[in-house]
Structures are given as structure tokens and as C-alpha cells.
């Protein structure tokens, strides 16, 4: 899996200051997407062992509230295994001390019918779901979604 963006101190994608990872690859191609350069699965750099070590090291700061994984789309079939490996490593290091949020253009109900997607969802704290719809774009600050059809879903048991 490649990634096309990374932020060590991100205050725009989830509560508090977070480490944010933007994975490459999305087949949804939502009109008006804020990050169309992320659609290409080959964009950016490979997410390798060094990138994972940096993500964990950067998160090991008391000011970091958690990890946000965006895209592209982390729930593209090609991305799920690597995203789950990242989530497992993050949980292994931080347990429930820091939260994990993931954004996807897919609906929660659809993802829960896919065993690999369901396995990943069950390991995170919050899923922001739904395709971006340009005509429903959110313009005010402080929202965790880009259009009003999208939902912020707290995952039970997390």
C-alpha cells in the first residue's frame, strides 16, 4: 500500500492533535473530492516498516490524541490488509490510550457485510462513512465530515 500524505500534528481530522495518514487509492472518485491526487493506488510512497516506525514514534507524544486514517480510501480491498496491520501495531503500542478514526466513502452497513472490512472496523474507535456529495458540502469548521450525508459512527465496545 502507498500513502500520499502524512501529518505529524493534525488538528483538522478528529478531536485533539492527531497523527494523520492519507492512504493512496480510491475507486469511488467522488465529484469535488478534496484529495483527487489520492485516487491513484501508485501515488506517493510505499508504507513500509520505516513509515510504520515513524508513525508509532510520532504518536508517542503526550500531546497526540490518536491516529486518523484517510485517503484515498482505507477500505479499498487492496488497502484493508495494510491498514489493519497499522491499526494492530497502534493498538499494540497504545492500547485504548489513543483513539483511531478512519474515513471512508463507503457506508458502514455495506462494510459490515465484508468480513475483512468488519474485522478492521471492530478494532477502531470511530468510522466516518459515506461518499462525499458536493451539493451537500459542509463549509463550517469543526465538522469531521465533508458533506452532510456522511456520519460519524462511534464503534460499540471501543
UniProtKB/TrEMBL annotation:
EC number: 1.97.1.-
Keyword set includes Transport: no
Names of the cofactor(s): [4Fe-4S] cluster
GO MF entries: 4 iron, 4 sulfur cluster binding; [formate-C-acetyltransferase]-activating enzyme activity; metal ion binding; ribonucleoside-diphosphate reductase activity, thioredoxin disulfide as acceptor
Enzyme class, spelled out: oxidoreductase
UniProt superkingdom: Bacteria
SUPFAM superfamilies with a match to the protein in the record: Radical SAM enzymes
Known role: Activation of anaerobic ribonucleoside-triphosphate reductase under anaerobic conditions by generation of an organic free radical, using S-adenosylmethionine and reduced flavodoxin as cosubstrates to produce 5'-deoxy-adenosine.
Family stated for the protein in its record: Belongs to the organic radical-activating enzymes family.
Stated name of the protein: Anaerobic ribonucleoside-triphosphate reductase-activating protein
Protein species of origin: Sutterella seckii
